[in-house]
């Protein structure tokens, strides 16, 4: 199991989600010559979300970003700047299949102080 998470910044919450380059090793392989890959992740309710991860065409600094499907996910979960998103990659040992989960977590604030993050409960 691999786990990658990020606290959302303004661009992440409004347009696209950028990740460190190490996120690429968790994704399905890119087709030869392609700078984008599509994958599906299920949320806490088991609903599938289709995402597209794109990289810069430059091989020296690939910087992955989630574009397609990302804004719909943000709106559905009512995510804001400061909230956290987590992608988890699972490998089924029996079948060797790979699956992904996506988890949204809201920032917990009390009297203006941040106390961590809590998963958004299924509705």
UniProtKB/TrEMBL annotation:
Cross-referenced SMART domains: B3 (SM01019)
Gene3D superfamilies: DNA-binding pseudobarrel domain
Main localization (coarse): nucleus
Keywords: DNA-binding, Nucleus, Transcription, Transcription regulation
Keyword Transcription regulation assigned: yes
Localization per record: Nucleus
Listed SUPFAM superfamilies: DNA-binding pseudobarrel domain
Presence of the UniProt keyword Transcription regulation in the record: yes
Domain annotation TF-B3: ranges: 2-106
GO molecular function, one term: DNA binding
Transmembrane intervals: none
Gene Ontology CC: nucleus
PANTHER family, per database record: B3 DOMAIN-CONTAINING TRANSCRIPTION FACTOR ABI3, TF-B3 DOMAIN-CONTAINING PROTEIN
Full protein name: TF-B3 domain-containing protein
Originating species: Salix dunnii
Lineage: Eukaryota, Viridiplantae, Streptophyta, Embryophyta, Tracheophyta
């Amino acid at each position: 199991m691999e786990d990658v998470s990020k606290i959302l910044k303004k661009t992440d919450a409004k347009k696209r989600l950028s990740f460190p380059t190490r996120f690429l090793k968790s994704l399905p392989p890119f087709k030869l010559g392609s700078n984008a890959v599509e994958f599906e992740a299920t949320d806490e309710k088991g609903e599938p979300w289709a995402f597209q991860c794109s990289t810069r065409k430059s091989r020296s600094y690939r910087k992955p970003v989630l574009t397609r499907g990302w804004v719909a996910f943000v709106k559905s979960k009512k995510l804001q700047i400061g909230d956290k998103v987590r992608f988890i990659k699972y490998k089924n040992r029996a079948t060797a299949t790979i699956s992904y989960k996506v988890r949204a977590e809201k920032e917990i604030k009390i009297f203006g102080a941040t106390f961590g993050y809590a998963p958004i409960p299924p509705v």
